[in-house]
Design goal:
This protein is 1% helix and 51% strand. The longest helix has 4 residues. It has a single domain, classed as Glycosyl hydrolase domain, family 43 (Tachylectin-2, Chain A), CATH 2.115.10.20. It is mostly beta strands and 293 residues long. It has a four-stranded antiparallel beta sheet, with no helix packed on it.
Length: 293
């Protein structure tokens, strides 16, 4: 299969050097909004052009707590295993990010944490792993706008085993802190400012950037924030314009085997037309830009 044949939101690429392969994960249920959750599929490739799959990376056991909104799986290699951070929801349970684990990128992934690691009384989504300079693991995630109106990006320290939170959450910034972000409205949730899809990226000069997504002029857009301290707690400042604003976002960055810096995101931001795309980036002095095509 090619990327334009794969319906997927929130694409995430794991590069596995030992196999010379890339693994592509994302929100792969045909209807992630209303239908009962099916699970997460994964595709694999050697050249980023032709993809094998789908393979079932995660399917819920009959007693799994969540039944909907299976969103945004990320898979990270960490201490010899593979850890999936993914968002789930059920009636009477706040949306949150749970951590799952497997011995191979294809899975099967099984729950590691006891339910969501995000605060139980918060509506949260899109948890991502960040390991800081001294080896401490953090989960960066979004406190959702549907609950607090001005969506926030937050961080919480994890245990060395990645199975639980070991600190209180810290708010890193709010959506409206970026000057270009504009509010969205829905009949159910009213009006507010969106934060989606955080992903930490360490530049070659040591600067720490954070990708996240919001809306500009009604279109999904890819934002970039910068840590003044070089650490996860910031303080964070925001690039004055989006990195990508053509109705696409929820991005992450990876390096191809031939050394290219690639931004993976989905576009357009509408179901069922969303597709994963890879966009080559240039990095200079801690700044990212889209390469001329």
């Amino acid at each position: 299969m090619r990327l334009d044949q794969i319906q997927m939101r929130d694409p995430f690429v794991l590069k596995e050097p030992s196999e010379g392969r890339y693994y592509l994960y994302g929100s792969t249920d045909p209807d992630i909004w209303q239908a009962k959750g099916i699970g997460f599929d994964v595709y694999r490739s050697r050249d980023l052009e032709e993809w094998e799959g789908p393979f079932p990376a995660f399917r819920p056991a009959p007693d799994f707590w969540a039944d909907r909104n299976f969103w945004a799986p990320e898979v990270h290699a960490y201490k010899g295993r593979y850890y999936m951070f993914a968002t789930f929801k059920a009636d009477g349970v706040r949306r949150g990010t749970q951590i799952l684990a497997a011995d191979h990128p294809l899975g099967p992934f099984r729950p590691l944490s006891d339910g969501p690691v995000t605060p139980s009384d918060w509506e949260c989504l899109d948890g991502t792993l960040h390991v800081d300079g001294d080896g401490t693991p953090w989960m960066i995630f979004c406190h959702e706008w549907v609950q607090i109106k001005n969506g926030a990006v937050c961080a919480i320290r994890l245990s060395p085993e990645l199975d639980r939170a070991v600190s209180e959450p810290v708010t890193l910034f709010s959506a409206s802190d970026a000057e270009w972000v504009e509010p969205v409205s829905s009949p159910k949730n009213g009006t507010g400012y969106v934060t989606d899809g955080p992903y930490a990226y360490r530049c070659t000069n040591g600067e720490l950037l954070l990708l996240w997504s919001s809306f500009k002029q009604g279109r999904y857009a890819q934002a970039v924030a910068r840590s003044a301290s070089g650490g996860v707690l910031g303080p964070w400042t925001h690039e004055p314009t989006p990195l990508f604003e053509s109705d696409g976002g929820h991005g992450m960055i990876f390096r191809s085997f031939d050394g290219k810096i690639l931004l993976a995101l989905h576009t357009p931001n509408r179901t069922p037309d969303e597709r994963p795309v890879f966009i080559e980036l240039a990095e200079e002095d801690g700044r990212l830009s889209v390469c001329d095509s």
